[in-house]
């Protein structure tokens, strides 16, 4: 008997969904909150993968002929279908990866929002015109569909990150081949089924394809596949480095959204009534498993004791438990490996001179639960483990005296995704966002707002080992198209640029 939420989403009889008994070619999807199997999902082999990409290539050739605003209408209908299924899909996200209900719903909301954004965009895929230096010549730019896009997504945003890519790619005239995390294939099946059902129903089948398989079988083929001119990948910096190298080797394009090691600076005059709850949400929300999670706090030395005291008090009130139960704020980590990673980072922090102030243990609530941790770095501010992104709720506290010191600490890690400053000082806020680039070195920099929970309207992504890609809002759509510069001579004479005469 399949899970009711699979029935509500109409995927209980999907040919990929099977009984959970583990056997070759099937991955068992487990609810991290209780360790129980939800379903089995059949994995694609190489031949199946090949057929899926062939189908995507064929769909692309038709889809690119559809006028962009009409593609927008399809995306609008997809967004409406996500609205209808928001509750059930949000619940499936919670079941599969352990997000609390509000965050599961919030994730689907991001999908709805990006669909709306993409609809408007479908009439705004603007190219520039530029004056030609030659008489009776015109110059303009065209933005053209790029091809079938490969999307590799992580477990922690199993629906929204695909949508950021797929909704934009869709209006840009691209088809999509999606390889989701094997920790969250059911959300992918349900999400892709919605998109494909709507697009197919409107006469455009095959635009949204899904391939579920092992990295060694499907992932490696995908990144080496010349049929996919762009690979958009979300995950660890290690994974992204490999993807980047392989795709560069075939002159493909990548859009990488990799690890973050995000800091929030708390200035001497910060409004703590605003800062403390913002920090708590950003540090423990999604059990510390967002790429935008606040992992480091850089606090002015004059208020560090007060900030620490208030954070510890807040952490003590956080309800850890069943992600779908009312009032729960922190659910489980995604699996036992994540718990081990959490515990070993805590052990390393202690051995490196960090002081564990609260949490840092397995929680008795269930198999994959931990208690969110706060670790105070030693007075030297040296804590090597804090250079790593541990995908779990650990907040390391550092101190600073001057704003320059705080910004330098913010920028001292390998990753560069998100950052924040809590301050009432205009000067310090503007230094953090300095137009010279001497402030935060991250792709996202916020003032009096936490590092996580970015809106879809802005470009999302970051620098350094975060990979440099930008997804979602602003002009991220350009990653999904190819630019063509066109020069048109409407005179009767051949004129060469740069004034060259070649008679
Ligand atoms: C991610 O963790 O990969 O800004 C994406 C946020 C969300 C997206 C996170 N809107 O926290």
Distance between the termini: 81 Å
On the 0 to 100 scale, the average pLDDT is 97
Q: What is the total tally of β strands?
A: 22
Tell me roughly what share of residues is in helical segments.
Answer: 25-40%
Query: Largest sheet, described in full?
Result: 7 strands, mixed
Look at the helices and sheets and give the structural class: alpha/beta
Question: What is the overall shape?
Answer: globular
Instruction: Provide the low-confidence segments as ranges.
Output: none
- Proportion of beta-strand residues: 15-25%
Which ligands appear in the coordinates?
2-aminohexanedioic acid
CATH superfamily membership of the largest domain: Aldehyde Dehydrogenase, Chain A, domain 1
**Could you say what the CATH topology of the largest domain is called?**
Aldehyde Dehydrogenase, Chain A, domain 1
Q: What's the CATH class of the largest domain, please? A: Alpha Beta
Question: Radius of gyration in whole Å, from Cα?
Answer: 24 Å
Our count of domains comes out at 2
Q: DSSP helix count?
A: 14
Biggest sheet: strand arrangement:
13-14-15-12-11-17-18
CATH architecture of the largest domain: 3-Layer(aba) Sandwich
Give structural notes.
The chain has 503 residues and is of the alpha/beta class. The chain has 2 domains: 4-258 and 467-484, 3-Layer(aba) Sandwich (Aldehyde Dehydrogenase, Chain A, domain 1), CATH 3.40.605; 262-460, Aldehyde Dehydrogenase, Chain A, domain 2 (3-Layer(aba) Sandwich). Helices cover 37% and strands 19% of the residues. The protein contains 14 helices and 22 strands. It has helices at 4-8, 46-63, 68-84, 86-97, 101-121, 160-172, 185-201, 215-224, 237-249, 272-284, 304-317, 336-351, 403-410, 426-432; strands at 17-18, 26-30, 37-42, 129-130, 137-145, 149-152, 176-179, 208-210, 230-234, 253-257, 262-266, 294-300, 355-358, 373-376, 394-400, 415-416, 418-422, 444-447, 459-460, 463-464, 471-472, 481-489. The strands form 6 sheets. It has a 7-stranded mixed β-sheet with strand order 13-14-15-12-11-17-18, sandwiched between helices. The chain has a 5-stranded parallel β-sheet with strand order 8-7-6-9-10, with helices on both faces. Strand 6 (149-152), helix 6 (160-172) and strand 7 (176-179) form a beta-alpha-beta unit. The longest helix has 21 residues, at 101-121. The N and C termini lie far apart (81 Å). The structure holds 2-aminohexanedioic acid. Residues 110, 156-157, 161, 234, 290-292, 452-454 line the site of 2-aminohexanedioic acid.
């Amino acid at each position: 008997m399949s899970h009711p939420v699979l029935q509500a989403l109409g995927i209980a009889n999907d040919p990929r969904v099977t009984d959970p008994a583990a056997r070759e070619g099937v991955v068992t999807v487990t609810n991290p909150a209780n360790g129980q199997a939800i379903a089995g999902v059949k994995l694609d082999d190489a031949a199946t993968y090949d057929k899926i990409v062939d189908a995507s290539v064929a769909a692309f050739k038709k889809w690119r002929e559809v006028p962009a605003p009409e593609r927008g209408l399809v995306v609008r209908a997809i967004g409406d279908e996500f609205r209808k299924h928001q509750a059930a899909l949000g619940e499936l996200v919670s079941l599969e990866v352990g997000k609390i209900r509000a965050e599961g719903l919030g994730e689907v909301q991001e999908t709805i929002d990006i669909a709306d954004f993409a609809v408007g965009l479908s009439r705004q895929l603007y190219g520039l015109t530029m004056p030609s230096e030659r008489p009776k010549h015109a110059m303009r730019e065209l933005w053209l569909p790029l091809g079938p896009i490969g999307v590799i997504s992580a477990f922690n945003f199993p629906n929204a990150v695909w949508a950021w890519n797929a909704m934009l790619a869709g209006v840009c005239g691209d088809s999509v081949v999606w390889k989701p995390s094997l920790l969250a294939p059911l959300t992918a099946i349900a999400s892709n089924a919605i998109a494909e059902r709507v697009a197919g129903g409107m006469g455009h089948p095959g635009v949204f394809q899904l391939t579920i398989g092992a990295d060694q079988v499907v992932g490696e083929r995908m990144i080496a596949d010349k049929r996919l001119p762009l690979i958009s990948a979300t995950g660890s910096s290690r994974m992204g480095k490999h993807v980047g190298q392989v795709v560069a080797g075939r002159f493909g394009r990548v859009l990488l959204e990799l690890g973050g090691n995000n800091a929030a600076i708390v200035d001497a005059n910060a409004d703590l009534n605003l800062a403390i709850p913002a920090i708590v949400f950003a540090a423990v929300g999604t059990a510390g498993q967002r790429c935008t999670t606040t992992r480091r706090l850089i606090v002015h030395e004059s208020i560090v004791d007060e900030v620490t005291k208030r954070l510890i008090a807040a952490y003590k009130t956080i309800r850890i438990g069943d992600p779908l139960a009312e009032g729960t704020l922190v659910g489980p980590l995604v699996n036992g490996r994540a718990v081990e990673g959490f515990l070993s980072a805590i052990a390393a922090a202690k051995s490196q001179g960090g002081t564990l102030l609260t949490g840092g243990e397995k929680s008795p609530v269930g198999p994959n639960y931990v208690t969110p941790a706060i670790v105070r770095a030693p007075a030297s501010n040296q804590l090597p483990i804090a250079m790593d992104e541990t995908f779990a709720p650990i907040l390391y506290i550092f101190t600073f005296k001057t704003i320059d010191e705080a910004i330098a600490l913010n920028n001292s890690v390998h990753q560069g995704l998100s950052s924040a400053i809590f301050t009432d000082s205009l000067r310090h806020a503007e230094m953090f966002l300095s137009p010279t680039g001497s402030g935060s070195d991250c792709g996202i920099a916020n003032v009096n707002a936490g590092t996580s929970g970015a809106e879809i309207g802005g470009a999302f992504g970051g620098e350094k080992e975060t990979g440099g890609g930008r997804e979602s809002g602003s002009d991220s759509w350009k990653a999904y198209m190819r630019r063509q510069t066109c020069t048109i001579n409407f005179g009767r004479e051949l004129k060469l640029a740069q004034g060259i005469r070649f008679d």
